[in-house]
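thoughts on both lines:
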Amino acid sequence: MKINTRLKPEDLLPKIERLWSLSAAKIASIEKSHDPAQGAPVFTVEGAYTARGWTEWTQGFQYGSALLQFDATDDAAFLEIGRRNTVEKMAPHVSHVGVHDHGFNNVSTYGNLLRLMNEGRIAENAWERNFYELALKLSGAIQARRWTEIPGGGFIYSFNGPHSLFVDTIRSLRALAVAHRLGHVLMEENDRKVSLLDRLKAHAVSTMKWSIYYGQGRDAYDLRGRVAHEAIFNTNDGNFRCPNSQQGYSPFSTWTRGLAWAMCGTAEQLEFLDALGDDEISPRLLEAARATCDFYIDRAAAADGIPYWDTGAPNLHCLGDWQSRPAEPINPYEPVDSSAAAIAAQGLLRLGRFTKNERYRQAGLTVLDALFDEPYLSANANHQGLILHSIYHRPNGWDYVPKGCAIPCGESSMWGDYHAREAALYVQRLCENKPYLTFWGETA
């Protein structure tokens, strides 16, 4: 990508102000039209949010988006939407033992509410605080219980089963982090206490070892910073068997949203552990964060910082030297994934701040400069999505292909919209000298 070295956070404020203005109507539209009985909204089809059964991992982004909208604009109507729906609808996600998505669903809702209270943005209320804290404690413990032991460590296994480590889950570690910060532990058989912090660090180490590559000859496709979506283990002996991919093109190419999860998750955990004064795994986190962010800048993103959905997508070569020009969401060959850009931008910005490295910071601002404008920012009042040209599951063919087009384009995803809002809030707070945005609600 071509990094704009002159951009300042303040330069993005006009685009961010417009984003929040458009965002408000879209949140209100979804709240009015979407039937929760049909399942959580996942992605848009012809501009309307629809459900898609796989796992229920996006409802927290729906109601969390309303809380971010309140945080950015002080519009209390969105606080009410987020708070009421969290209380009424999110409890099943707290007790969900079948998924690896607790950090997505519950930290985006209960966590944002607790953060707002910690920051003094909403009134202190003892019973309300206790309610949010209990939900987050249970969520972190239940997530940590989904555990596979392997030689030298272990991991939180994905919904695919105990053999499966997803790279996504490193961002979901925020559930364990918050629960640990609240003083909670997982209670196992015979009253054995399991540290949530230890499980967080063990999972992070497994992810960094088996999901992220470092250019050290691990296999014939080992490029520094490349990411495998899934790592497969033999559950009989715990040994690693092979990389795999559910949503990417192949185990030996890089699904760019998986890359973005790794970028954001490693950078965020660097901040969290630094705030705890725990640097046991920080050198490894820093190595992984730098490797993945460098890969994004050098190999994954087009010139404007927006990536295509997979670095090995089979028809990407038909676009020629695609890295030398801005991404082209309307093309006959391969789709871009704006949701990967929204997630990756925050990883770049956080790593830039943590390392005091202008390259990463400016790359993050460059990504957002493109993402917060057309053709990605959705100005159409009849389209419920905020950020266009997001991709969910290209191999399964789940994404909507408009008439006359050869590839999916023009639609939005709940996670892409949420992370664009979160990135916008992050930058806005930097510009306004407000408390630094952390998921645990205390300055990093």
Remarks:
- The radius of gyration is 20 Å.
- The beta strands are 41-45, 48-51, 147-150, 153-156, 164-166, 186-187, 193-194, 230-233, 240-244.
- The chain is about 45% helix and 5% strand.
- The mean pLDDT is 97.
